[in-house]
Amino acid sequence: MARPLPGDYGNYYENYVKRVDADNLQQAIEKYASPLLNFYNSLPDEKADYRYEPGKWSLKDLLQHVIDTERIMSYRILRIARNDSTPLPGFEENDYAANANAANRSFESLKQEFSALRKSTDLLLQSFTEVQLNHAGTASGQRATANGIGYIIFGHMLHHKEVIETRYL
Asked: Is residue 139 part of a domain?
């Protein structure tokens, strides 16, 4: 299975997909799974509540956002790969953040959740056949293939890694 093409995901996600330097999802897993897991799990505890400017998310909020988004994208990819044609709604990230209660969780609990989710997502992605990855559906009002969503998952994590490196650390 090759890289997704424009039209395999909504235009909004182009910034994420282009960050993934891999010819297929298996290669993306091999290249990014361990380094991304290590990066997010090594975030310093003393920065957990840090906000780089008033009104911005804390590092805990950001990690919770990465978790929530991966869960939503994993659900989308599962539905689409199983050839479910039900249109999948979008989500408002700021509403999720406001209701996630990340501030009252330990940073360690967020890291543990992230680790478990990452392993689960990678196993899910590895379970799909090429035919399943080619299935297309509708997510957030846009056509999306399962393969395209897999790239979004990694691209989203890479995007926020860069945000953390430039604004939080």
From this structure: yes
